[in-house]
């Protein structure tokens, strides 16, 4: 029996009869044995290494946002993000979806998130959920230039206009997102620690 990627969605990782398979635009690839035995996600506690790794990823996210802000490489707001994704999705390097505990049950916001996630997955844009809007506001600033509060529910990080972005912190986030997808966690959650 031969496997074909004709009827399989892009970038799908599936555990089944043939082991753990990754299906993407390059075809179907069987993942190594160590991926087949691993059921842990990055959110699950597993000692100091997982905590250190999550702290490291949170610091990398803060570094990326701090570096992108003065370069004008940040788009803030659900509507603004949707417009930017529609105009130039190839320029987006990272999408953040942020909520606080009281907003988790906001159906309209969750529908927006679902649509943005689907678009980002279709266009190979890394996505992270962020669980600390207050800290995100501290990093990005809370007000638009006109004094109006910003909608921090969706934040896009884009390439600078002059070139592509080569940043070790961004590389770390991209690697984290890729590793999460291998473990079938398509939108990993990052908790930005208070400072």
From TrEMBL:
GO terms under cellular component: nucleus
Subcellular location(s) per record: Nucleus
Top-level division of the source organism's lineage: Eukaryota
Matches recorded under InterPro entries: GADD45, Ribosomal_eL30-like_sf, Ribosomal_eL8/eL30/eS12/Gad45
The keyword DNA damage is assigned to this record: yes
Cell cycle in keyword set: yes
Gene Ontology biological process terms, A to Z: DNA damage response; regulation of cell cycle
Alphabetized UniProt keyword annotations: Cell cycle, DNA damage, Growth arrest, Nucleus, Phosphoprotein
Domain Ribosomal protein eL8/eL30/eS12/Gadd45: 60-144
Family of the protein in this entry: Belongs to the GADD45 family.
Protein's name in the database: Growth arrest and DNA damage-inducible protein GADD45 alpha
UniProt organism field: Coilia grayii
């Amino acid at each position: 029996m031969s496997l074909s990627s004709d009827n399989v969605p892009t970038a799908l990782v599936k555990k089944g009869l043939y082991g753990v398979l990754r299906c993407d635009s390059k075809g179907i690839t069987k993942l190594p044995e160590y991926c087949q035995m691993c059921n842990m996600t990055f959110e699950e506690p597993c000692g100091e290494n997982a905590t250190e790794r999550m702290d490291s990823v949170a610091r990398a996210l803060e570094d990326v946002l701090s570096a992108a802000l003065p370069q004008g490489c940040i788009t803030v707001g659900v509507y603004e993000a949707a417009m930017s994704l529609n105009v130039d999705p190839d320029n987006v390097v990272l999408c953040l979806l942020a909520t606080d505990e009281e907003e988790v049950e906001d159906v309209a916001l969750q529908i927006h998130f679902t649509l943005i996630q689907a678009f980002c997955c279709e266009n190979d844009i890394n996505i992270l959920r962020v669980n600390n809007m207050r800290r995100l506001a501290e990093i990005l600033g809370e007000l638009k230039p006109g004094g109006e509060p910003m909608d921090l529910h969706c934040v896009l990080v884009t390439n600078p206009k002059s070139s592509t972005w080569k940043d070790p912190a961004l590389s770390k986030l991209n690697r984290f997102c890729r590793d999460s997808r291998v473990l079938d966690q398509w939108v990993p959650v990052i908790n930005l620690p208070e400072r």
